[in-house]
Model the fold of this input.
Amino acid sequence: MKILQAIKVSFGAIRSHKLRSFLTMLGVIIGVFSVVTLVSIAQGATGAVTEQIEEMGPNLIIVNITGRGHRTLSLEEANRLAGREGVRAVAPVVSGRVTVKQGNVTLDTTLEGTSPEYRTVRNQSAQSGRFLTEADLQFRQNVVLLGGSVAEELFPLGDPLGREIRIDGTPFTVIGLLEEQGAGLGGSGDDKIIVPVTTAQRLLRISGISTIYLQASAPEMVDRVIAGVEAALTLHFRDDQAFTLFDQAQILDTLEQITGTLTLMLGGIAGISLLVGGIGIMNIMLVSVTERTREIGICKALGAKKRDILLQFLIESSVLSGFGGLFGLALGYGAGIAISNFTDLTPAFSPLVVAVALVFSLCVGMFFGLWPANKAAKLNPIEALRAQ
Amino acid sequence: MIAISGVNKIYYLHGVQVAALREVSLSVAEGEFIAVAGPSGSGKSTLMNIIGCLDIPSSGVYCLNGEDVGRLPDNRLAEIRNRHIGFVFQSFNLLPRISARENVELPLLYRGISSKERTRLALKALERVGLADRVRHRPTQLSGGQQQRVAIARALVGEPSVILADEPTGNLDSGSGNEIIALLHQLHRQGKTVVLITHDPDLASQAQRTVKMYDGMIIREEVRVP
Done:
């Protein structure tokens, strides 16, 4: 018997029990829907975070001075790292929490004292006004660049450029606004202010450098630069625990591990509901085989082979689960659009997830249809014909 | 055409051995109209199952068209049923969800004949049983006599060697029953081999030859003198 014909016949059987077929399908619909939606959300979130990490600047290496031991790293010593082979630029950073005041608005934010190189190394420049200059550092100018959210709160109406704010009581002139970065790892990239590193050292009363951002000259130089800097700093601190060193690749690796596990977990949980849907299909197919025992007997008397009966029931369960999968996919897609409309999340529908969900739902139908179909195929025609 | 010799059929019912057929020998020539009669439990249904290749003998030989079908695997038996046997059952046994035409097409479907050809042959068969105007009706929309005629069309459509009718009038009123018997006679006149299984002696006596069964054995054969 041709497969197309079997599909046609199975549609007839499904149509004759509309409600029952729908309820059976519902298990698969919910299963595929949850797999597709949850995995897409997880992948969407991963994509967004990955993008943010990549936007941190190309070939970025981050050195955190944890300050264990008694030695610190001075600004000059940090800047000397720029002379190393493979290092294109160095941006030393001194940071701390400060209170910013303008008129009667007061707020706490993160202050980063850094050098003009920050702009290239961290890939964040001024969207208006200007960035820091060497002269600002040299003369310890009280100038500040405001992050987007800080500027919005301090100057809700007017243009902040050229205006004066007070940082921990000291007056500073706003010289620029930082490019918007959005929420990223470790808080908002917009909830911060930037001042010259020398000014920050004086303001925060810190002599050492807390963080150094290094930019390697090429992606393939990253590892070599890390090794060199690690050696130099170990020598300097006489302790390899006084600092941590990592690059984007490491962050991305860690992130991918976390989100990979998360995606797998979400997919797994959703997969269980698909499994339950499959059991529902098996249940209803067993009922169907019992109900249609006589029908099966008739078909066998008329010359249907085992294969014909097996195929018929397999196709029926596959049609149930396959269409359940399609509906579930459509629902999941709709949910994705709704989610991206009403929240910040943008679910990513990878063709792989769609294909896997569909193929898996078909397989669920076939797998759970196999036993009932085999039961039908093995029926003795005489006994089947005698059934009521 | 049908050559049965020394066939035994033994069932095990709850561990008890039941001999449904004992040393049955019967031969039916091509174009013959034969009736198998006997009370219920006499073994005539078992004999029909064996003739119809739904079952195989426990011992003995059954040759259909010269082929020993007693030892064939299930799939071969299905093929033989499909090509050589046309069943007509007491309870019609039509599939309820599909139309008369689609029911008639079923044997051809399992033979792998194209959809167009199936439809053509099915319509021809329905015409032969006088139901050309009921092809789209579902079994439930037809009277008992009409349903049985659809079943006969289904038995005919594959041009089988034997029409095997098991109590074909059992569920019908006498008027429809007579129509069905008349139809079987008509098919016989057109050259079909017909095996009619019945417990009704009047019906059996209309056949060319009647085989009487009792307790799993053939106890008598009567040939009607025309």
